Amino acid sequence: xxxxxxxxxxxxxxxxxxxxxxxVTADWSKGIRAHRVWRGQDDPNLVIVxxxxxxxxxxxxxxxxxxxxxxMARGGVIASSVRMDYVEEVAGGTL
Length: 95
Description:
- This protein is α+β, with helices and mostly antiparallel strands.
- The chain has one domain: Alpha-Beta Plaits (2-Layer Sandwich).
- It is built from three helices and four strands.
- Strands 2-3-1-4 form a four-stranded antiparallel beta sheet.
């Protein structure tokens, strides 16, 4: 499993969120196994999305689709702010 953290700024979180909700349930996003969203406390237009995939190839296949870039633009994502980090879990637990 691979998780991709996508950090970006949006023009308006309240306008972005419905577009995200549509995108994450769309047929073209079926490769996502799990997802979570964080919103900045000091900057409510800072968004971090974590999406988990079966493999790096599966993540790349979805993240390189033009339909994703179109959805991000409709949601008001500021393209120059997008940062993507691919990670794999190596430890976990609760305290």
